[in-house]
Write a structure and sequence with these properties.
Order of helices and strands: EEEEEEEEEEEEEEE
Radius of gyration: 25 Å
Structural class: mainly beta
Number of domains: 1
Distance between the termini: 50 Å
Largest sheet: 9 strands, antiparallel
Number of strands: 15
Helix content: under 10%
Number of helices: 0
Amino acid sequence: MNNILDYKVGADLTLNENLEQELLQGTGRAYGIEFLIKKEKGDFNGYFGYTYSRSELKLDSAIPEENVNNGAYFPANYDKPHDFSLVSNYRLTKRFSFSMNFTYQTGRPVTYPTGKFIYAGQEQVVYSARNQFRIPDYYRLDLGINIEGNHKKNKLVHSFVNISVYNVLGRNNPYSVFFVTKDNEIKAFQTSIFSIPIPTITYNFKF
């Protein structure tokens, strides 16, 4: 990838009318491999998928102090090397079936503050190399059961009920991590979505 745009180290974005001066132009590269095993027939079916992929950027500047990570490749914000999915379905009888979905992903890259110092009477923060660390990995387990009505051919409406639980393990998967300076301390916060098990009941019908 060519002509990738990203911010310089320490870019000033607040009320900046010349944001283009805070950008660097660089290159990117991406590579990976995917595997998929799928079973479509029978009472027990589903698939297993695994992806290993990398996406990296390199931002050089004519001014050495503006180079990101000394001009070396670093993980892009959306770089997630490992992605694992397992979906399975089991039909116990003609009316009752069960389903399971498990997902795992590597946490996305993030830049952490690693230290601080006093300069000109003010506290300054030292950050790690860009995207050197990662937020915690993401994983989630969902379970469900389908209860179908009888299978008479002459019925006007065929229906089934789905009872499922999203995020059965109650995993508090972080969506993002950010840092705030408060009371002269740098504190980390994270946002999450659905950090508790979420039960649902769905009624479906078709004519």
